[in-house]
Design a protein that fits this description.
- This protein is of the alpha+beta class and about 475 residues long.
- The two termini are about 75 Å apart.
- The protein is built from ten helices and twelve strands.
Amino acid sequence: MSRFGLRGRIAVFFVLAMALALAGMAAAAYVVVGHELNSTLDLSLRRQATRIARQFPAEPSVAAISGPCRYLAAPSCVQVVGADGGIRSEHLPDQSLPVNAETRAVAAGSADAFFTDFSLDGYPMRMYTVQLEPGSAVQVAQRADTVDTGRRRVGLALLAAAVAGLLLAALLGTVLARRALAPVGALTDAAERVARTRDPKHHIAVSGSDELARLAVSVNTMLDELDAALTAERESRAAQQRLVADASHELRTPLTALRTNIDLLRRAERMPAGDLAETVAALRVQSEELSGLVTDLIDLARADDPDAVRENLEDLRLDLLTADCLAVTRRHWPAVGFEADLHPVTIQGVPARLARAITNLLDNAAKFSPPDGLVRVVVADRALSVRDSGPGIPAADLPHIFDRFYRSQSARATPGHGLGLAIVAQVAALHRATPEVESTSGGTCFTLTFPEGCAASGKVDAETVVRSGGLILGG
C-alpha cells in the first residue's frame, strides 16, 4: 500500500469497503432467494397433499398414477403407503417413491409430517409425507431442478452485479478521492510554491467549513505570519546594511582627520609650539567625536539586536533624572541658559537609556540655540518637554529628523553625526512613550509623553515605530 499515494489508498479502501458490502448483500440475497424457492416448492407440495387428503375418501383416483416423475412437465408424483409399508396406490415399478420407517410411523399416526430430499433416476426430488387417514400416509414428490436452477441463476446474477458494482465503486472512489483531496492538493501546491519561490503571498482558496477548510485557514494564517516574518527579516537586514553603510561613511571623515593630524605630529620637532598645541587639541576633539559616534552606534546596534538581554525596569523619578542630566549639560554648554520647571513624576523605565535620551534632547537644544539663548525644560503630567530658542526646523525636514544619520541642510554646519534624535526615538519606543515635535521660527519643542503604568516593551525597533507614524509632528 505504501507505493500508492493518499488518493490511491482512499480509492482502494473505498473499493474494499464496497466489495465487502456487496459480498454481504449478495450472500444474504442468495440465501433469501434459495429459502424462498424452497418455501415455494414446499408450499406447493403441502397444498397438493391437502387437496388429495380432502378428496381421497370420495374420489380415490386422485392418488392414481399421474405419469413418470422424471419429467418436469408432469404433475407431482403421488403414492399412498400403508402402516405396514405396503403401497396401496397405483405406481410404476421403476418409479415408486422411497418408503422407510419414518413413513410407516406417519401412516400409523405416531410421527408428524416431514419433507425428504432424494434422487430418482439421477434427478433431484423433494417429497412431502403426511397422514392421509388412520393407517395410511400419502407421499407427494416433485423434481427440485427448478430450485437449483433458480438458485444458480440468482447466484450468477448477483456475481455479475457485484463485479459491475466493484467497477463502478472503483470509478466513483477515484473521482471522490480526487475531489475530496483537492484541498490537500492545493495545500501541497502552496507549500511547494512557497518552498520554491520563498514567496508566501499566495493564499489558498477556502470553501466550506469542514476540517480541510479549517486546515486551509490555518495554512493561510501561517503564510501570513511567514510573510510578516520574512518582511521583518528583510527590513531588519536592510536597516543593518544602511547602518553599516552610514556608519562607514560617517567614520571616514573623523578617521581621515585623525590620520592627517597624526601625520603632522610625526614632524612635531619642526612645528611651532602654537601649531603643535592646536594639532593636539584638534586630535582630542576628533577622538571625542569618534568616541561619541562609536558609542551611539553601539547603543543603536544593541537595541536592534533580537538576542540582546532584556533590560530590567525600575521605578524612577523622571524629574530627578532630568535634573541630573541638566547639570551635566550646563557644564558642556556654559554659554547657553537653562530654565527648569520640574514637578515630581514617577515612571517605570531603564535609567541609563532614559538619561541618554534626555541628554541628547538637551544637547540638541543647546546646540541650536544662540549663545545668549534660553533652553526651557519642563517635567509635569508624565511628560518631559525641551524647548530651544533656535531658528526652528524646516517643514520639509520634520518627517526625517529621527532618521539615523539624517541632517538637514541648515544643520550640516553644526557638530554632530545625526544619531542623537534617532536614539531618542528608539528609547521612546522602548518605553512606549509618544514623541512630539513642534517647530516654529522662534524655536523647537521636543516632548516625550509617558503613558500611565509605563512599562518598557523589550525589543522594539524604534526606526520602525518612527516610520510607521509613531511620531506626532507639529508645525
